[in-house]
Specification:
Helix content is 49%, strand content 16%. The protein is of the alpha/beta class. The strands form four sheets. Strands 7, 8, 9, 10, 11, 12 and 13 form a seven-stranded mixed β-sheet that branches. A hairpin with a 2-residue loop joins strand 5 and strand 6. The N and C termini lie far apart (86 Å).
């Protein structure tokens, strides 16, 4: 094997032999050549790359992989791979050693089969010609009957012999097919191993970077850390693309069929992409046809993956420049329905750089980039669109693309989805009888708003600017009509002076305003008696609720945005009313031990760290442990064996939450963890916010009951009334009325939610949790809103374990919120 690792570089990487290869070195079998001149190596075999088996490796700043032939690749490796090249490529050479003879044998058998088929065809033609002559001369040549019978017998024997030969050939082909499948299995195992080996150190890199980013840094240091972190995540995305592509190629990509909401997926993807769109000063539009049912059956995760890939590409290839406003539009339209089946078209359209016909023809090919010149501005593996196309086809749909250079691109995804049986979704309020005046110059946003308002029963009129709107409102006053709800756009500089001038008119105080605000201007405070709605993207439910609120039919909607840079903390250690939380961590990698220790410390939690399952089991038996975080693969006793041992020793009614932390990214690993008795699953690298969310899901159920009256310090922060003030203004009487009504309704919601959980009614859980989520966020009770959202999502999937956990969390959080509101109302009587 050492003779097959050759380096033209001196010094050579460890395990490689320094010398200049000859032709016999390159064609004799699998070989890996490290060189700084790949053309020189190819010239040795007259650029016949099909004769090479292995890889030609050079070093560069980034990882790049290109196929040279059916069994040869050109690899550009990062410089820090220098000492590990032999360890990386030795398994590959072993696989090639094992599989190449099988492939050669398969090709030889295929050639034999083709020759046998041609011989059989020739024999069959001979038979037909002889038989035709015999038919023409049957009456005249009776003496030849004996010869004909003899010839027929001989031909039949030949056919039988060839048939037997073909059967033997088919058997050998089947053997070769099974051998090839075994080789494919080995390839999948190799990819999984490589994924695990890359993710394990990456967990240390990303974990430490995230912790470092929240320390005291200069602006330049913060920018550098952000760059390193983005690069690391780009590497992980490349790894995920390769794994997905491998699973699709092997026919192992499995889809889920669960209840999903097209509206939530479309708007969720748009909100996720909004940050990058805002940085590029793009207008991001989204629209969901109101005729699409709220609950359909499909694979939500894979559909989000497809749309996120398409939207990310759209924002990446679109700019606002040269007087043209960059726009990206994500929309879903109902094409037609038949019974319980709905044909939906989801499109992603931009006005970016576009593509020519040659690029479009190869766009969905693996490892192909839409921009492939040597001066590329955009990165990527070239697998994203290929994966999107394959996933769409697995879903039974189709994906199309249309583009013109300089004009933009549109991707169209056509899917047929079935309605979810028995789904119950709380509808938004109707807008019947509400007259609206839309004052917008943005045609796309105006068309979206008009469609939504008309669908829910409102009357809509449009104006291009405030001056035209003023004339319209004056006429309405002269006719003694009810002033309409006016929707207008807050300009990018946040200038509301034209709106304030309208307020100065004699009729201005009677008009209720909805201010459409770009998300980059979240700090913009609207005038009193107006409702703020975020656009770019605009969410349908926000608009409908805002219109109903402006007309006085419901409380104003509130969109609460979490600060992504703020790390939450648990307030459980050393607090009255709570016992100290004891977390046991089983992890054999020293770097990852330090990462998880610092992450837990940053969350306000202490932990005990051991390096294998045997030590973890001993600690668990000796002291109280509230939660176990365990790696799946450790020496002596792995995470699966540890879980099995703990579950065997637990008493009746007692169960320690066990959460797996593993670098294995292959599908089925999460199911394997849950089947082994674990409660949850985290994939490396573990982000601190994901760690917090998972711990918050399981830790609250280890807490003792809290009496808010005895510990008022625990209630602080449960409600942020600034959220309510931003929506309805500073009027205490108005706030008092809204909060009094909230306490009554929320208590009723909670009782109904608990009853639904007790009666195992997932539809009712979803319905009540959704109502409690919306109203709680509207008054600033964000934590209660988050717990309610968890219950809602668990109800959609009928996941009773998560439902009961979430309902327990809601009950505890509601005690804090209710106690806080009770005190506030008592001191702010209206």
């Amino acid at each position: 094997m050492k003779a097959r690792l050759i380096s033209t570089l001196d010094p050579a990487p460890p395990g490689f032999t320094f010398r200049h290869p000859q032709k016999r070195d390159l064609v004799a079998g699998p070989v890996v050549v490290v060189t700084d001149n790949s053309e020189q190596v190819l010239a040795i075999v007259d650029h016949r790359s099909d004769r090479l088996q292995g890889a030609i490796v050079s070093f560069g700043d980034a990882f790049d992989l290109q196929p040279l032939g059916p069994r040869c690749w050109l690899l550009q490796a990062p410089h820090h791979w220098f000492n590990d090249l032999a360890q990386i490529f030795t398994p590959m050479l072993k696989v090639l050693d094992d599989t190449i003879p099988l492939l050669d044998e398969s090709q030889e058998l295929q050639l034999k089969l083709e020759r046998a088929s041609r011989d059989l065809s020739t024999t069959h033609d001979d038979y037909q010609r002889v038989n035709a002559r015999l038919q023409n001369k049957v009456e005249a040549v009776t003496k030849a009957q004996g010869e004909i019978l003899a010839l027929n017998t001989a031909l039949e024997k030949r056919v039988d012999a060839r048939t037997a030969e073909l059967a033997e050939t088919n058997r050998k082909l089947l053997d070769a097919k099974e051998a090839a499948e075994s080789a494919n299995e080995a390839k999948s195992l190799f990819l999984a191993t490589m994924s695990h080996e890359i993710r394990t150190p990456m967990n240390g890199i990303l974990g430490m970077l995230e912790l470092l980013s929240h320390s005291q840094l200069s602006a330049e240091q913060t920018k550098m850390i952000s760059t390193v972190r983005d690069s690391a995540f780009s590497l992980l995305n490349i790894l995920n693309d390769i794994l997905d592509f491998s699973k699709i190629e092997a026919g192992r990509m499995e889809l889920e069929n669960i209840t999903l909401s097209v509206e939530e997926i479309i708007e969720g993807v748009a909100e996720t992409v909004a940050a990058s769109a805002n940085k590029r000063n793009l207008h991001l539009h989204c629209y969901v046809d109101p005729d699409i049912p709220d609950a359909l059956i499909g694979d939500e995760v894979r559909l989000r993956q497809i749309l996120f890939n398409l939207c990310s590409n759209a924002t990446k290839f679109t700019d606002t420049a040269n007087g043209q406003q960059g726009c990206v539009t994500l929309r879903a339209d109902l094409l037609h329905s038949a019974g319980q089946l709905y044909s939906i078209r989801i499109s992603v359209k931009d006005n970016g750089i576009g593509m020519d016909r040659g690029t479009l023809d190869k766009l969905f090919s693996p490892f192909t980039q839409g921009e492939s010149s040597t001066t590329r501005r955009y990165g990527g593996t070239g697998l994203g669109l290929s994966i999107c196309k394959r996933l769409t086809e697995i879903m039974g749909g189709a994906i199309e693309v249309a583009s013109e250079p300089g004009q933009g691109t549109e991707f169209r995804l056509n899917l047929t989805l079935a309605a979810a049986p028995g789904a119950r979704i709380e509808p938004p309020p109707t807008l019947d009888g509400i007259e609206t005046l839309v004052v917008l110059s943005d045609e796309l946003t105006r068309a979206t708003i008009t469609s939504y308002l008309l669908k829910f029963g409102a009357t809509v009129q449009s104006c291009q600017d405030i001056k035209e709107a003023s004339t319209h409102l004056s006429k309405a006053l002269q006719l003694d009509r009810t002033p309409p709800v006016l929707l207008t756009y807050a300009e990018q500089d946040g200038d509301l002076s034209p709106l304030l001038k309208l307020r100065g008119q004699p009729w201005g105080q009677d008009v209720r305003f909805i201010i459409l605000t770009p998300r980059r201007y979240r700090s913009l405070n609207p005038p009193p008696d107006s409702v703020k709605v975020y656009v770019y993207p605009l969410c349908r439910n926000d608009l409908v609720m805002a219109a109903a609120a402006a007309a006085g039919r419901c409380s104003p909607p509130v969109r609460h945005f979490q600060d992504p840079d703020k790390i939450p903390r648990f307030d459980v250690p050393n607090r009255p009313g709570l016992h100290p939380v004891s977390i046991l961590v089983a992890e054999d990698n020293l770097t990852n031990q330090e990462v998880i220790r610092l992450q837990l410390k940053r969350l306000g939690l202490d932990c005990i760290i051991v390096e294998n399952g045997c030590q973890a089991l001993a600690v668990w038996q000796q002291r109280q442990v509230d939660l176990v975080l365990t790696d799946c693969h450790m020496p002596e006793m792995d995470g699966f064996q540890l879980t099995s041992a703990i579950r065997e020793k637990e008493g009746a009614g007692l169960r320690t939450p066990i959460i797996a932390i593993t670098a294995n990214a292959l599908r089925g690993e999460a199911e394997r963890c849950l089947h082994a008795g674990m409660d949850d699953y985290l994939s490396k690298p573990v982000e601190i916010r994901k760690l917090y969310e998972t711990l918050a899901k399981w830790l609250p159920h280890q807490r003792r009951k809290l009496n808010p009256a005895e510990h008022p310090e625990m209630v602080e922060g449960s409600v942020d009334l600034n959220v309510l003030s931003d929506s309805v203004g500073p009027d205490i009487d108005v706030q008092h009325e809204i909060l009094t009504k909230y306490r009554e309704d929320a208590a009723a919601n909670l009782r109904a939610l608990v009853l639904a959980a007790q009666q195992d009614n997932p539809e009712a859980v979803t319905f009540e949790a959704h109502r409690l989520k919306s109203s709680s966020r509207a008054i600033g009770a964000e934590a209660l809103g988050e717990w309610s959202e968890k219950a809602e999502m668990a109800g959609r999937g009928a996941n009773w374990r998560d439902i009961r956990f979430a309902v327990s969390g809601i009950e505890q959080e509601f005690e804090k919120v209710d106690y806080y509101l009770q005190n506030w109302l008592a001191h702010n009587g209206g």
